[in-house]
Write a structure and sequence with these properties.
Layout (H helix, E strand, L loop, with lengths): L2 H15 L3 E7 L10 E6 L3 H19 L5 E3 L6 E5 L3 E6 L1 H7 L1 H4 L4 E4 L5
Parallel strand pairs: 2-5
Antiparallel strand pairs: 1-2, 1-6, 3-4, 4-5
Length: 119
Amino acid sequence: MNNSRKLVDTIVEAIQEKKGQGITIADLREIDGSICNYFVICQGNSPSQINAIAESVYLIAKKKLGEMPVHEAGLQNLQWVAIDYGDVVVHIFLPDVREFYDLDNLWEDAKLEQIEDID
């Protein structure tokens, strides 16, 4: 398993730990001009849940893999948080913001993997 995919799996685990929903993994490795190898997209139902998911991603990626983000954005308003790990970018949305930006369908040539929600 490559390092990018190991990071993706760790991020998914971190999202699920805080009950993040609608997890989609977009594999962008075959897309010309893509900015990274993977997008991990999910949503939380409130700004506080988005903050908890972002914190979980940060802590678990650091603890398990020693990975630190290159950049983070959106932690001020907590409607759309992006955490950039270089090869993997995590997007955590409020549901209506996710629907508006529709990142899941932006890269239409990408292979999309839906992760089942944990209740």
